[in-house]
Amino acid sequence: MRKLVLVASAVLLAVPAMAQHVHQKGPNGGPLEDVAGVHLEMVASGKTLTFNVFDEANKPVSTGGFSGSILLVSGGDRETIPLAASGTALKADAKNEIAKGAAVSVTIKTPDGKTGQVKFKN
Length: 122
Hints:
By secondary structure, the protein is mostly beta strands. The chain has a single domain (23-121), classed as Immunoglobulin-like (Sandwich), CATH 2.60.40. 14% of the residues lie in helices and 48% in strands. The protein is built from one helix and ten strands. The strands form two sheets. It has a six-stranded antiparallel beta sheet with strand order 1-2-3-4-8-7, with no helix packed on it. Strands 6-5-9-10 form a four-stranded antiparallel beta sheet, with no helix packed on it. The longest helix has 17 residues, at 2-18. The radius of gyration is 18 Å and the shape is globular. 23% of the residues are buried.
């Protein structure tokens, strides 16, 4: 009986650690994630996905020299879209309006060669 209580206690204590990751909110209200040494904030509007780029102090970063792409998955539809640098943001335009709940996988490369990948839900 004692072993059962110990095992149950261990499982209950581990559950919060396994809970789904909660996105932080960025300055523009979108989810914010760390990737390749910068913070990306995703903002979706119509067919456009904008990824605002910030440094560790949450100050906007020029996206000159950044490259990357996104994989947009909504239901059975998949679309790969290149990212275009635009001031302090990276932008991608989808063929169709971006559906709520769509999965967005972002792959970026910074000007200093750091690469990373992060996932968002719209």
